[in-house]
Amino acid sequence: MRYWALLAALLAFGASARAETPRVVVSLAPLHSLAAAVMVEIAEPVLLLDGPASPHGYALRPSEARLLAKADLILWVGPALEGFLVRPVANLGKAAVRLEVLRLPDLERHPRRAGGVWGEDHNDHAPPAGRYDGLEWDGHVWLDPSNAIRIGGALAERLGALDPANAARYRANAGRLTAELEGLDGELRSMLAPVAGKRYLVFHDAYQYLEKRYGLTPIGALAIDPDHKPSAKIMQALRERLRAEKAVCLFSEPQFDPALMRIVAEGTMARQSVLDPLGADLPRGPTLYPSLMRRLADALSACLK
Q1: Which CATH entry fits the domain spanning 20-108+136-188: 3.40.50.1980, 1.10.1740.10, 3.90.180.10, 3.40.640.10?
Q2: Is-contact 178 197, C-beta < 8 A?
């Protein structure tokens, strides 16, 4: 009898210990991958936006709102990208810790660009130096591995504060993530160096962080926000630029109809390929982020060569 009582007590203790680990909700798959790496063998974060859906124009479902309400920590980029989260996160009061990536003080940030044709040093709407404005910065920050390292470190700090018993493990996991991403950064640099000067066009301006990190040469994008179609004037200007610059490739995205890219490509010699900044079809978890970055580099390299 005492054996069963002891066993029940141990099981109850284990369940209590597990329940004390923070409930972490993450907006996007690449951020979820980084969180999963920091939390490995401790707990599993919950991914809010799963599947092929894009954060642009997304509408939060009741089940997802309930996940947010139960969270101890919410990891998201910020209003520049996940506009659908602005009001729900604000309405949570002090119930959860918010880790808004674009507010990290040591983050590499780039101003949001306009759709259409770009010059060599095209930057629109740049906020004053040192100022944070969630709507003026490009939100696709994870596409620079140095930012992914910063995100992992900041998350480990926040989790350690919420869960002091596992603080050292979060820090150790973040250290291993840093080492892996530093190696990945060198690998991507080697893969993309041979095509750095090749010109190309993207459907959606999601790749600025990747481009600036590795010295790539885009000539423009059909749109900043893929939910708003470009004007006929912009499409004509892009077609003329494609011909004038002898651009090698046009890249669409799996989340959106590629028909507009085909229209722009008419009468040019540019090849067409696909880039996916979210890794919509990749297995969820710690391996998604490095797989996503390698696949982007592979797609760019294969088409631009």
Answers
A1: 3.40.50.1980
A2: no
251, exposed or middle or buried, with CB in 10 Å at 0-12, 13-18, 19+?
buried
Sign of dihedral through CA atoms 166, 172, 173, 175? positive
The Cα 305–Cα 294 span in angstroms is: 16
Angle (CA) 218-210-302 rounded to 5° is 65
- Spatial neighbors of 89 by CB under 8 A, at least 6 apart, are 68, 74, 76, 98
Alpha-carbon gap, residue 36 to 285, rounded angstroms: 6
Alpha-carbon Rg for the chain, nearest whole angstrom, is: 21
CATH 3.40.50.1980 fits 195-304, yes or no: yes
Domain ranges of the chain: 20-108+136-188, 195-304
pLDDT band at 286 (very low <50, low <70, confident <90, very high): very high
pLDDT score of 119: 52
CA distance 118 to 94: 42
Question: Per mean pLDDT, which range of 4-8, 175-179, 298-302 is the poorest?
Answer: 4-8
- Sheet containing 271-274: give its strands across: 116-117, 217-223, 199-204, 249-252, 271-274
CB atoms within 10 A of CB 289: 28
Would you give the distance in Å from CA 26 to the centre of its chain? Answer: 11
**Residue 266 CB neighbours (<10 A):** 8
CB 115 within 8 A of CB 234: yes
Residues 45 and 280: their CA atoms lie apart, in Å, by 17
